[in-house]
Amino acid sequence: MKYIQTNLNNGGKLYYTKNRINKSTYIDVLFDCGARCDTIPGLAHFCEHMFFSGTKKMSKDEVWKKYWSFISTNAYTSLRDIVFTGNIFTNELGDYLSTIATLITESTFSSEAIKKERKVINQEITGSIDKHSNISYKFNRYNLFKLPAYKENTFCGSAKTIAQITRKDVVNFIKKYFVANNVQIYICSPISVSKVKRIANKNLVDKIPVNNKLEKLDYDFYDVVNNNFVKTQKADIKKTYITLNLVFPHAYDDHAFYKKLDLALDIVNDSSIGLLKQLRLKKDLVYSGGVNYIKMKENCILIFNCNCEPNNVNEVIKTTAEYFKSIFKEGFTLENLIRVKRYAKHNEVSKLPSIDIEFNRLYNYRWYGKVLDYKKLKKIKAKATVEDCNNVIKEAFTNGKVSLSLYGQIDKENLITKNQLNEMFKFN
């Protein structure tokens, strides 16, 4: 996969790769102003929502119909960025970028719309699983407990902080950060990089202002390398969100190892044969969950996230440990591997190098000085055997050190102790 970095007009950046698989274009338009820029907890996420509240010429319904009329589009706020993301027909690229420019420059951000959006945000804070299932992991990984803006224990803020946000706060935030010299476009497209640049400049970058006083934000990346045992304060969510981190040392440029580990985790995540069957289908302990891994510079983290009722926390941890120990001792079967490979082949369209998956990895690899060869990695995964999957899982478990994060309602008196946790996840 050839990877090109180039400049757009007025200080913007373009990260491009050729899409040789199909005729679609995958695109992320990022603005460097995520939740770490909050002056009021939840402000960045609130501003993202406000882009879809109506413009000078379009009502809220018309904005929604327009933005979601492309093949697949979305927008989200992370710790680092606010992102417009899309999987679109290539001939619609100019229209898509022009629509984003319209949302940035022509949204009215009326006081009435802000009042309505508060209710929507509060619903997300109190009830939406997908906004919180990952939070305990993010708190642990990014060490957010040290940041004053995160006292509310969620980047979405709280009902109290959301009530403080005014139209002036929204307008000032957007004027400061949604500017041409703060945009990064990540694109995987069948058209040439020179044509992409022309379309991006004409339809987006040249239409939004420049902020010459914009400060370049430092970004400190916190690595969970210690045997941490974190217990958060109670929150207004009537569930507990569990994150188990298994940190293990490994050469970060060993791509073959990680593609095989990725395949092994596909088996672990299979709802018919894997961990979720033990937790959800068999024992009815969790609402959702999954296992993945994050590659760091000097070590890697195997991560299990789930959400459950507060009184099930200890049983979820115990069952997870039992399952991992059974995998360590007995290993996967050939039938397990065949099932997952067949499923992946059947859903190959969703496995394409979409911008939100492959470019995020490319973005991380710039730190390592590496560039992905997508075809090579795909072949490694396709040729992996059940022995390969068993070996990579055992290597990760054998050298791993476990840590635990909990977010939400917690029964502190009966909670598993640090020593009990370490004993449960001892593999030999």
Give the tally of structural domains: 2
- Gyration radius, to the nearest Å? 22 Å
Number of H/I helices: 16
Order of helices and strands: EEEHHEEHHHHHEHEEHHEEHHHHHEH
User: What's the helical proportion of residues?
Assistant: 40-55%
- Terminal Cα separation, in Å? 39 Å
Q: Could you name the CATH topology of the largest domain?
A: Cytochrome Bc1 Complex, Chain A, domain 1
Mean pLDDT: 77
Superfamily at the CATH H level of the largest domain?
Metalloenzyme, LuxS/M16 peptidase-like
Structural class: alpha+beta
Describe this structure in words.
- The chain has 428 residues and is of the alpha+beta class.
- The chain has 2 domains: 3-207, Cytochrome Bc1 Complex, Chain A, domain 1, CATH 3.30.830.10; 229-424, Metalloenzyme, LuxS/M16 peptidase-like (Cytochrome Bc1 Complex, Chain A, domain 1, 2-Layer Sandwich).
- The protein has helices at 43-50, 60-67, 93-106, 111-127, 135-142, 159-162, 167-177, 193-203, 255-269, 275-282, 313-330, 334-346, 355-368, 374-383, 386-398, 418-424, and strands spanning 3-7, 13-18, 24-31, 72-77, 82-89, 183-189, 229-231, 240-248, 286-295, 300-308, 401-408.
- It has a 6-stranded mixed beta sheet, sandwiched between helices. A 5-stranded mixed beta sheet has the order 7-11-8-10-9, with helices on both faces.
- Helix 1 packs across helix 7, helix 3 (93-106) packs parallel to helix 8 (193-203) and helix 9 packs across helix 14 (374-383).
- It is globular.
- The model is unreliable at 127-153, 219-237, 346-356 and 358-371 (pLDDT under 50).
Descriptive terms for the model:
Cytochrome Bc1 Complex, Chain A, domain 1, 42% helix, five-stranded mixed beta sheet, alpha+beta, six-stranded mixed beta sheet, 2 domains, 428 residues, globular
